Automatic annotation (TrEMBL):
<dbReference type="InterPro" id="IPR035595">
    <property type="entry name" value="UDP_glycos_trans_CS"/>
</dbReference>
<keyword id="KW-0328">Glycosyltransferase</keyword>
<comment type="similarity">
    <text>Belongs to the UDP-glycosyltransferase family.</text>
</comment>
<dbReference type="Pfam" id="PF00201">
    <property type="entry name" value="UDPGT"/>
</dbReference>
<dbReference type="InterPro" id="IPR002213">
    <property type="entry name" value="UDP_glucos_trans"/>
</dbReference>
<keyword id="KW-0808">Transferase</keyword>
<protein>
    <recommendedName>
        <fullName>Glycosyltransferase</fullName>
        <ecNumber>2.4.1.-</ecNumber>
    </recommendedName>
</protein>
<dbReference type="GO" id="GO:0080044">
    <property type="term" value="F:quercetin 7-O-glucosyltransferase activity"/>
</dbReference>
<dbReference type="GO" id="GO:0080043">
    <property type="term" value="F:quercetin 3-O-glucosyltransferase activity"/>
</dbReference>
């Protein structure tokens, strides 16, 4: 700490410009800033973070070079790939300039980059800076991703429909159908991208937004295979609880509505920042919620229904049927919602941030994974931590109504809720004094100080 007082070290963070990635990176920045580091966030113009929400950070906007991207149609994987091609030279130029201007008092200790912003590692190496990877998905997802590479090389994938329910050896409880495939790109392109994103090249350490007590054996397996140290220091949102990096405006009016609902009665429904659905699926969810007779808070994100904007897409007669029993917003303050006493269940796409936030709220889940790591998370939620139930592939109102009643009313749901509370306590222990995440964070800081 003596050294830190004399020479505050600067860390350059490179988030991937999507909500589910920006959140954990900026939370990490908040945590490391509280430990005495100066923080610079290098970011794209697209989905750029709001500097006024982070007055303690410096921001380094990278000149925009991207052709019109297609993120609204959900072609995110191709977009991220394009980022890697287009931003390397810009980042090199901008970072070199910062280094020229820096004094001894403000030395850059390292670059911390989102696992998919691989160009950052190459630039750090060229500028002789150490680099550290932040993995924003679960450890189980990482193993599943490396397995895709192996199974493809061994000829097991693509697999026939008849194998989709088969368990994958060494990857319990994942079945072939749970592998984190992309809905946006071909298997060949996915394999190429995964070999790039899972390769740490010259990086010195890996930070993981997960918790040892959730993924102990998976983390141990990864550490055995990995020649650099890994630091599971999550859940980042819980340690950096005050920071918000929402790209959309949060509609806090739903909190006042929640205040009027009884304890544990509300099912919160949200499918994150990138998943989308069609009108038929929207109608099935709407009538499933209406028919369940349970109070609900539903996020219908603009652009999430192919080709349309909010409220007018809801089925005819739906609003009249639900009356005051349901509340619909475009974007919610999700962490506050999941911490609210009235919320007793979360109907979710199972993005990793949502999964961690639900676990930290002690809230059991109805899992409706859409793509990629969401399938892995859903399987862990329902089969390993047993704090949720998973819906079938096709959204059907009857199945949704039944799932809500199982979770919110029946004995099975009460038991899941109890297990969710126990899981929450375990996670709380990990960030407290002597807990695994706290210890890992201290070790991480030591390594960064030694650079
Ligand atoms: C994407 C992928 O879908 C996901 O599988 C991957 O793990 C991360 O990137 P996203 O769809 O954004 O994530 O889901 P998630 O990881 O759950 O992150 C969404 C974030 O937005 C959460 O931190 C959540 O709190 C926040 N959110 C969501 C809000 O603040 N308000 C909302 O109304 C909905």
């Amino acid at each position: 700490m003596e050294r830190q007082r004399m020479r505050p070290l600067r860390l350059v963070l490179v988030p991937c410009p999507f909500q589910g990635h920006i959140n954990p990176m900026l939370q990490l920045g908040t945590i490391l800033h509280s430990k005495g580091f100066s923080i610079t966030v290098a970011h794209t113009q697209f989905n750029s973070p709001n500097p006024s929400a982070h007055p303690d950070f410096s921001f380094l906007p990278l000149p925009d070079t991207l052709p019109d991207h297609n993120s609204s149609t959900g072609d995110l994987v191709a977009f991220v790939w394009e980022l890697n091609v287009n931003y390397k030279a810009r980042f090199h130029e901008c970072l070199a300039q910062v280094m020229e201007q820096q004094g001894l008092e403000d030395r850059i200790a390292c670059v911390i980059y989102d696992e998919v912003m691989c160009f950052s590692e190459a630039v750090a190496m060229e500028l002789k800076l150490p680099s550290v990877v932040l993995r924003t998905a679960s450890a189980a997802t990482f193993l599943a991703r490396t397995s895709i590479l192996q199974l493809k090389a061994e000829g097991y994938i693509p697999f026939p429909e008849s194998m989709s329910q088969d368990l994958i050896p060494e990857l319990y409880p994942l079945r072939f159908k749970d592998l984190p495939f992309s809905v946006f790109i071909t298997l060949e392109d996915l394999v190429q991208q995964l070999s790039t994103f899972t390769n740490i090249r010259t990086s010195s350490a890996i930070i993981w937004n997960t918790i040892d007590s959730l993924e102990k054996s998976t983390l141990a397996k990864i550490q055995q295979q990995c020649r650099i140290p890994i630091f599971p220091i999550g859940p980042l949102h819980e340690i950096a609880s005050a920071s918000s990096s929402s790209l959309l405006e949060e509609d806090s009016s739903c909190l006042a509505w929640l205040d009027k609902q009884s304890y544990n009665s509300v099912i919160y429904v949200s499918f994150g920042s990138v998943a989308f659905m069609d009108m038929k699926e929207l109608a099935e969810i709407a009538w499933g919620l209406a028919n369940s007779q349970q109070p609900f808070l539903w996020v219908v994100r603009p652009g999430s229904i192919r080709g349309s904007e909010l409220i007018e897409v809801l089925p005819k007669g739906f609003k009249e049927t639900i009356g005051e029993r349901g509340y619909i917003v475009k974007w919610a303050p999700q962490k506050e919602v999941l911490a609210h006493d009235a919320v007793g269940g979360f109907f979710s796409h199972c993005g990793w941030n949502s999964t961690l936030e639900s676990i930290c709220g002690g809230i059991p889940m109805i899992c409706r994974p859409c793509f990629s790591d969401q399938r892995v998370n859903a399987r862990y939620i329902s089969q390993v931590w047993t704090v949720g139930l998973e819906l079938g592939n096709e959204l059907q109102r009857g199945e949704i109504e039944r799932a809500i009643r199982r979770l919110m009313v029946e004995k099975e749901g009460k038991e899941m809720s109890e297990r969710a509370k126990i899981l929450k306590e375990k996670v709380e222990l990990s960030i407290g004094e002597g807990g695994s995440s706290k210890n890992s964070l201290n070790e991480l800081i030591e390594i960064i100080m030694s650079f």
